[in-house]
Amino acid sequence: MYDTLIGNVRILDGTGGPEYCASVALDGGRIAAIGDLSGATARHTIDGAGLALAPGFIDVHTHDDTNVIRTPDMLPKLSQGVTTVVVGNCGISASPVTLRGEPPDPMNLLGKRGDFSYPTFADYTRAIEAARPAVNVAALVGHTALRSNHMDRLDRPATHDEVLAMRAQLRDALAHGAIGLSTGLAYASAFEADTAEVKLLAEALDEFGALYTTHLRSEFAAILEAMQEAFDIALHARVPVVVSHLKCAGAGNWGRTKEVLFKLENAGRLQHVGCDCYPYSASSSTLDLKQVTDEFDIDITWSEPHPEQARRKLAAIAADWGVTLLEAAQRLQPAGAVYHNMHEDDVRRVLSHPLTMVGSDGLPNDPMPHPRLWGAFPRVLGHYSRDVGLFPLAQAVHKMTGLSAARFGLADRGLVREGCHADLVLFDPATVIDRATFAEPVQTAGGIEAVWVNGVLSYRSGEATGERAGRWLPRSGDLRASFPEERAV
Length: 489
Fold this sequence. Notes:
By secondary structure, the protein is α/β, with parallel strands linked by helices. It has helices at about 65-70, 75-80, 120-130, 145-150, 160-175, 190, 195-210, 225-235, 255-265, 315-320, 325-330, 345-350, 370-385, 395-400, 400-405, 480, and strands spanning about 1-10, 20-25, 30-35, 40-45, 50-55, 55-60, 80-85, 135-140, 180-185, 210-215, 240-245, 275, 285, 300-305, 310-315, 335-340, 355-360, 425, 450-455, 455-460, 465. Strands 1, 2, 3, 4, 5, 18, 19, 20 and 21 form a nine-stranded mixed beta sheet that branches. It has an eight-stranded parallel beta sheet with strand order 6-7-8-9-10-11-12-17. Strand 10, helix 8 and strand 11 (about 240-245) form a beta-alpha-beta unit. Helix 8 runs parallel beside helix 9 (about 255-265) and helix 10 (about 315-320) packs across helix 11. It is globular, with a radius of gyration of 22 Å.
């Protein structure tokens, strides 16, 4: 007798290959059988007729570092079919961290000072295991976090000795299962780090076969130069590189995704490269003075000195105060913002490219979060695949499962295959859709019927079951061996 039997369901197996109909049996946290199981019995049976079964979605770009411990129910992710999150992106991570004061921008996106209580990476992994989050957790180590540990101020390059101290901490984290290193070179806390600093630090990745991911130094006019820097760092370290939330930001940059993707493809002839993106034409982060402009709308999501200005446009605030946009932004800091800084054509071009995975980049601690926190994955399935016809459903699922698991070394995940861990999502292809909006961002998706994490039914019919079966996922093997060769078509 099996634990669970999902009968007569459309299977999208995560490879991008054709779908097929079969029944799927779960037992002991894994997929035990796939096929004609008409004679099988199970403790729990679900009729999958008219529904689709896919691997649980892997959110490769999150900032859930402290939330998987503080709010382990993880409803924003579980409710949209996400069963695994990768934390530590954009150079900011919850560990290894030893703060001297308040967390520097943008580490403050992850929480307050008291939320950073993991001086070693092993401390962090133990905390995850103790919290038992509802989703699996894999982690990168943030460059900015390492800088904060070893530097008196972040507005300068690190000394050679400081980088060696950072590298020792990175090696320790890699030895304890970290996936790799992330940077956020666009932020003031890391912008003064030169390429040599990152190369010296990234050398530790080669020994472990780990990964380099980067929020580029620029996503605006200098994006090609920033991409080249990323490729150079990864070539120096002899490891794969993933460009985070690839975009062409700023009105003067719109339309340049053609040359950006061409550069990515060319680099892929020499080294392992990839990228992720979120399915929206607006970004979200802390309020960055370098991004203040009148070329596009900027929505303020929170402000410490002026909380009453949240949910308003920066232009309206500046007009009320009788000051320039920049002066208003300075008064509001520290603050959060949504930047409507992309063109929809560019979003579609990047999202549909074979080298692209899906990541939400959601900010769970923002009181007025970007809707991607609750809606990114159903939006790909419902809006972009079904309604817009940007790519077939099987390809959409591949970008969120099999491709992601291979790139990040998540063994036996991301596929509907016998023997794999039973991370699964059952959804209705006809109705699946994101319901979160910029005006009302905290809304669960439609059409997500059930979610299993390690074989445990964790979400059903619009509600969490209360079961939390997520695990800490250490890096599995040398990621150069598992990194897939995806080519343009």
